[in-house]
Amino acid sequence: MRIDFDPEALGSTPFYKLLTSVVVPRPIAWVSTISRDHLSANLAPHSFFTVAAVAPPIVQFTSVGRKDSLRNVEDTGEFVVNLAPEGLFEQVNATATDFPHGVSEFEAVGVAQEASARVKPPRVAGSPVALECVVHSTMGLGNSTVVFGRVVHAAIDDAVMVDGHAEITRLRPLSRLGKNEWGTVGDVLDLARIRYADWEGQGPEKV
User: Fold this and answer.
1) What total number of domains does the chain contain?
2) Buried b / exposed e across 142-151, counting CB within 10 Å, b at 16+?
3) Which of 8, 61, 83, 134 is most buried as measured by Cβ atoms within 10 A of its Cβ?
4) Residue 24, in any domain of the structure
5) Reduced to 3 states, what is the DSSP secondary structure of residue 48?
């Protein structure tokens, strides 16, 4: 038996909580930006995040409401997506605090930063991956704005690389679940795609 939910009847906030409890796990874009005057660096986690395109390489994150990340992106046209690692769990969560406009989360939370190679916003020094981006476009959807960024530089810690591949068990990325729940890397399943030419007798058993 299934339970039916009508988004309009339930209301936006209750349905948002339901939606984020079933669209799981969600990777986290720990987005660093800088103010137009380059005096204040902002850092905030966004769990509506994914790859949007391959050639050119474009990633996307969604700002629910108008937050400093979005304002800075619109003002400067640049941002950095830092991987949110398990070892910085408390700092990632703390940067989601609604600090007043102009307060740098880097400074307030005590997150070390380093200069980026191609863009003005700083990178998180303790993150194993930083994707430096310039804004490709933005799209308003209801109370949210989707930001598309073209990746112009990637900086990856060599400690997480194995044979040219970023190893998941070394990256140890956090993910967001429902309520106040967070996910870490559990069992990793390794299964190659099946080519159609090899499909006969190779498909999963029907249930």
Assistant:
1) 1
2) eeebebbbbb
3) 61
4) yes
5) coil
pLDDT digits (tens, 9 = 90+) for 111-164: 999 999 999 999 999 999 999 999 999 999 999 999 999 999 999 999 999 999
Q: Is residue 57 part of a domain?
A: yes
Q: What is the pLDDT at residue 204? A: 72
| pLDDT tens, residue by residue, 33-82 | 999 998 899 999 999 999 999 999 999 999 999 999 999 999 999 999 99
- Structure tokens that stand for 7 in this block: 């988004």
Which amino acid is residue 37, in one-letter code?
Answer: D
Backbone φ and ψ of 15, nearest 5° = -70, -35
**69-84 pLDDT tens trace:** 999 999 999 999 999 9
CATH of the domain at 13: 2.30.110.10
Task: Decide: residue 97, CB within 10 A, 0-12 exposed, 13-18 middle, 19+ buried.
Answer: exposed
User: For residue 64, what are the domain limits?
Assistant: 7-198
> Has residue 1 been placed in a domain?
no
Beta bridge partners of 113: 124
Q: Assess if residue 2 is contained within a domain.
A: no
Residue pair 132/118 in contact (Cβ under 8 Å)? The answer is yes
Q: Structure pTM?
A: 0.94
